[in-house]
Design the sequence.
């Protein structure tokens, strides 16, 4: 059985079984979001089709407040940096001086942006034709507009040293002067997924409708990343941290029931792109956040790293249907996105495991993580602590006896 | 047999739990016929079918009469009966901007009480980049910029820049709703649709409240307060889709049949046809536009709004109203909540119930998306006026989205099992992911601690209640209390509400307060509550809580005089003693203390009327306020001892 965009027919099940919470394993065409801040800009426009690896936004991590100056004459005045000669009417400060442009990373976007410029009602951030005079007019200063300024605005220039340039977004105008959130350092973020841009607003957000299928997770952290899916052999449902070696660099590794702090540190050191696990603790998430902050502060470029926990915080093994699906996709490119928590597959068709309709899993309680088959409903039942809850009779795998479990502790899978 | 159905469904769609009840006109008045609760993922029609099946099995004749049918067709009844629906509003974020730290804190307090998740910033503490980051966050759906009626020196010099920053943010995020409170209202023109390029300082100068050199206060009259008389003005269009009446006909969406009360002439709310709203209105009273539909959890779409579609509300300053801030709180509540918000419905029902029963009532409701603490009491001649106050706290969720260290501290303080901080946080986060998960055994103990911690946050949010008298009736509501044994709920109320006095305790077991509270007409709601008052609350018993009981072997004696029996017990300081008094029974309790105590007034001999309930009469002889050891082990042991006395099945 394979999942394509049309969902497979849901088998008929009894009303009692239908009362067990369902867990959808696959979602199609989810919408993901990148939150931007002051100084950050989108490099794409709504309607753009993007592919993995394409630059979609540029962050300004050290944005600070800069007084831009009066912009009443924005239509006619010369570029603000007087120490550089003007290169003619075809030059625009914000594109020519972008570090992104210098690194030739906008090349792939040129054709797309030119196409976007032809579409009505769209305003790409920077449109440059490959040759010939520039045709686009300067736009009026509005909040969120990309702005480039010179070092002369940041204090007395030093002799013999190149003047640092700052770039960022306009914030607001007060007393006739604009303020901008700008900085010298910029980081380009590449899309980990293929999709269509739904919205792109400087300093606000970029939202993407992903092409393909994705598996929802409970928690995700880190920077959205992409790599080939590596499903190593697990010992008792777990992966030893020592198994995360340099041979797995560039991979998104299935790490078993729980991600430890040690595994996270080791994975980052080995340039692993991501970890997938059943659960992750709050302490480990804090460690990861602190580690990310330290790495950013060191100014050293780092590869994006993300982790996704499919179940939550309490230790639980990955459900066998999910594990089987991941095993079938081993070696294919996958992406972890964090807002919302998703594991995105590039595959057009996702192989689905065969599973009886009454297959259930205990997601919480004393049987958490165990899987088996639902047998019948027992209605309201007295459980531990003298509490009356709706119960079900189930037979867990490897158990000879049946168990009566609160229905709310169970889950069943739908694709 | 009547030709019209004489019954309807009352539904409360919570974030974790859906409750359903059947209310029928039986024996000449409205009665609660049956009710149930289920996790929110369960199909509501399936739940209703189970309810009706139970009624059919018990009394098919009554079901036929209520449904006005000859033969019982349960799917037909489900489709045909009207529904009174309340729904929990998802949490929403509000950014608070103040000119000064003092003002920001005041605004934050008011916004928190209105149920918002709040992130705040002030111009004297945060730079424009930090404030802009706060405004640009797509989690934030509204911004409150506030100032005093006459802004003081510490804030008014910052207001022009703050207003300009906010106006610029609305250019980038036209979906933002802006609330200008108090003196900040003079900057309204900055948000008037098409950006006219004027700065906040320009506007202030135009209005004569700033001098030519740009310094506030040196202009003629320093009249910012006079120019900014608080008023509420709705500039935005109110979406009519949310205006559906709550008692709807499930069959075809048209106006439901009017259901007549005993008088037979006045219908309850009958229509779900959206009322067309005026495009623009200026109301003398505080109103707010209906909020936008909540964003989906996983899929979110970019809001397509033109720059002129900016929502601006003018609101009173944070000191207006009695108690101070209540006027602004009302505006913010209206902005946040759905029209049939269940939490506000509970507050309205309690106010009506206070009138019907002529008693002071307090309610504490704890849910997944927040909590509510409300008090209503009759006042004035003939007790015709009801004075109410309330706090809706998003942070009073039993499992807050991002639990702070204080939340974990509160949880650990009420936990009777040893937990390290990380494990407690993991379990709390898992509880949010699966609110119905592990509801038995150790999970129930953890849930009780989480509920008590949330209860404690609600008590802290209503400091004015600390000086109020013990209410005559205290109600616990919310799914988490409904899932716990009644005796531990009563103990939780005694643990958290530490005021000397005597009170009746009850649980909103059927969760009817919320749906009944969405009935728009106060008179209709009171009439219905008068019919249902005996049905909707599950009595837990009575609580006697004297203050000033001195330590020792004996504090005195309690004598209960029932209809046929008299029982006497010795009172032990520091203990919670339970006297068996079944539901429906009333008795007179005579208390003779060894030393003078406070129980409403100071004295040694008291005689009070008490009512029975699921756990009888509780005599709480612990300290008021409660004093427990700060050492975790000792505290846990003390809490565990009291808890075991009320919940002996905990060790099963």
Sequence:
């Amino acid at each position: 059985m394979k999942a394509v965009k049309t969902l497979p027919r849901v088998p008929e099940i009894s009303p009692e079984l239908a009362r067990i919470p369902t867990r959808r394993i696959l979602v199609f065409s989810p919408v993901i979001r990148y939150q931007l801040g002051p100084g950050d800009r989108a490099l794409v426009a709504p309607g753009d089709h993007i592919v993995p690896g394409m630059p979609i936004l540029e962050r300004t991590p050290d944005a600070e407040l800069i007084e831009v100056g009066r912009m009443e004459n924005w239509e006619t005045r010369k570029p603000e940096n007087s120490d550089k000669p003007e290169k003619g009417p075809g030059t625009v400060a914000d594109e020519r001086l972008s570090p992104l442009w210098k690194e030739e990373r906008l090349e792939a976007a040129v054709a797309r942006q030119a196409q976007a410029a032809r579409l009505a009602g769209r305003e790409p951030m920077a449109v440059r034709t490959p040759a010939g005079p520039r045709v686009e007019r300067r736009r009026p200063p509005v909040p969120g507009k990309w702005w480039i300024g010179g070092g002369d605005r940041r204090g007395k220039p030093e002799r013999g040293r190149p003047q640092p340039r700052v770039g960022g977004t306009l914030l607001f105008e007060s007393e006739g002067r604009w303020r901008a959130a700008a900085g010298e350092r910029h980081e380009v973020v590449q899309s980990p997924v293929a999709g269509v841009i739904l919205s792109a607003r400087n300093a606000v957000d970029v939202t993407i409708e992903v092409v393909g299928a994705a598996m929802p997770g409970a928690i995700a952290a880190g920077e959205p990343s992409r790599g080939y899916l590596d499903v190593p052999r697990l010992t008792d449902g777990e992966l030893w941290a020592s198994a995360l070696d340099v041979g797995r660099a560039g991979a998104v590794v299935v790490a078993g029931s729980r991600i430890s702090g040690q595994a996270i540190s080791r994975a980052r050191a080995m340039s692993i792109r991501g970890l997938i696990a059943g659960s992750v603790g709050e302490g480990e998430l804090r460690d990861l956040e602190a580690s990310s902050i330290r790495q950013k502060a060191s100014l050293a470029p780092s590869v994006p790293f993300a982790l996704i926990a499919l179940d939550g915080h309490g230790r639980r093994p990955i459900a066998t249907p999910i594990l089987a699906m991941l095993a079938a996709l081993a070696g294919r490119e996958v992406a972890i996105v964090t807002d919302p928590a998703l594991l995105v597959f590039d595959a057009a068709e996702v192989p689905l495991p065969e599973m009886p309709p009454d297959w259930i899993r205990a997601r919480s309680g004393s049987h958490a993580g165990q899987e088996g088959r639902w047998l019948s409903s027992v209605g309201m039942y007295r459980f531990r602590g003298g509490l009356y809850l709706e119960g079900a009779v189930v037979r867990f795998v490897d158990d000879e006896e049946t168990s009566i479990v609160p229905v709310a502790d169970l889950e069943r899978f739908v694709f | 047999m009547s030709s019209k159905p004489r019954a309807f469904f009352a539904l409360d769609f919570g974030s974790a739990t859906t409750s359903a009840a059947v209310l029928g006109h039986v024996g000449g008045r409205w009665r609660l016929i049956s009710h149930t609760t289920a996790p929110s993922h369960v199909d509501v029609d399936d739940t209703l079918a189970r309810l009706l099946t139970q009624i059919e099995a018990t009394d098919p004749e009554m079901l036929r009469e209520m449904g006005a049918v000859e033969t019982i067709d349960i799917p037909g009844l489900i489709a045909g009966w009207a529904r009174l629906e309340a729904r929990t509003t998802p949490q929403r974020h509000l950014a608070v901007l103040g000119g000064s730290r003092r003002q920001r804190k005041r605004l934050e307090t008011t916004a928190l009480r209105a149920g918002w998740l709040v992130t705040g910033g002030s111009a004297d503490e945060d730079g424009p980049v930090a404030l802009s980051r706060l405004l640009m966050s797509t989690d934030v759906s509204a911004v409150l910029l506030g100032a005093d009626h006459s802004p003081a020196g510490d804030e008014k010099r910052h207001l022009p820049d703050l207003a300009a920053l906010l106006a610029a943010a609305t250019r980038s995020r036209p979906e933002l709703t802006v609330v200008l409170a108090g003196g900040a209202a003079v900057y309204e023109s900055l948000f008037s649709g098409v950006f006219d390029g004027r700065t906040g300082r320009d506007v202030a100068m135009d209005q004569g409240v700033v001098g030519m050199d740009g310094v506030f206060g040196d202009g003629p009259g320093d009249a910012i307060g006079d120019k900014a008389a608080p008023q509420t003005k709705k500039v935005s269009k109110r979406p009519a889709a949310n205006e559906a009446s709550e008692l709807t006909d499930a069959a075809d969406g048209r106006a439901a049949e009017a259901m007549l009360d005993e008088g037979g002439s006045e219908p309850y709310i009958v229509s779900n046809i959206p009322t067309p709203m005026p495009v623009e209105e200026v109301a003398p009273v505080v109103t707010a536009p209906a909020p936008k539909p909540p964003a989906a959890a996983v899929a979110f779409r970019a809001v397509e709004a033109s720059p002129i579609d900016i929502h601006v509300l003018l609101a009173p300053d944070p000191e207006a109203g009695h108690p101070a801030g209540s006027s602004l709180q009302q505006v913010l509540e209206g902005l946040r909540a759905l029209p049939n918000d269940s939490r506000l419905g509970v507050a309205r029902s309690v106010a009506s119930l206070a009138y019907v029963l002529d008693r002071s009532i307090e309610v504490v409701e704890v849910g997944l998306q927040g909590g509510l603490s409300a008090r209503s009491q009759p006042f004035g001649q003939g007790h015709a006026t009801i004075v109410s106050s309330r706090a809706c706290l998003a942070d009073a969720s039993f499992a807050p989205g991002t639990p702070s260290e204080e939340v974990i501290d509160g949880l650990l303080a009420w936990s009777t099992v040893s937990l390290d901080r990380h494990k407690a946080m993991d379990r709390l986060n898992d509880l949010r992911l699966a609110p119905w998960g592990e509801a038995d055994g150790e999970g129930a103990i953890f849930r009780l601690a989480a509920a008590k911690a949330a209860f404690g946050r609600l008590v802290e949010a209503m400091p004015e209640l600390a000086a109020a008298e013990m209410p005559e009736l205290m109600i616990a509501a919310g799914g988490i209390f409904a899932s716990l044994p009644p005796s531990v709920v009563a103990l939780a109320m005694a643990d958290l509400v530490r005021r000397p006095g005597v009170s009746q305790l009850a649980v909103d077991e059927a969760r009817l307060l919320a749906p009944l509270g969405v009935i728009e007409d106060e008179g209709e709601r009171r009439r219905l509550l008068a019919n249902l008052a005996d049905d909707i609350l599950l009595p837990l018993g009575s609580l006697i809580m004297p203050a000033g009981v001195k330590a020792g072997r004996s504090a005195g004696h309690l004598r209960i005089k029932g209809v046929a029996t008299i029982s006497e017990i010795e009172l032990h300081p520091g203990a919670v003693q339970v006297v068996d008094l079944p539901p429906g029974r009333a008795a007179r309790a005579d208390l003779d203390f060894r030393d003078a105590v406070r129980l409403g007034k100071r004295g040694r001999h008291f005689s009070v009327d008490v009512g029975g309930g699921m756990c009888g009469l509780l005599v709480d002889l612990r300290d008021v306020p409660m004093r427990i050891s700060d050492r975790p082990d000792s505290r846990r042991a003390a809490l565990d001892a009291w808890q075991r006395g009320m919940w002996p099945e905990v060790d099963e």
In short: The radius of gyration of chain B is 27 Å. Chain B touches chain A through 59 residues (CB under 8 Å). The longest strand of chain B covers residues 586-599. Residues 194-309 of chain B have pLDDT under 50 and may be disordered.
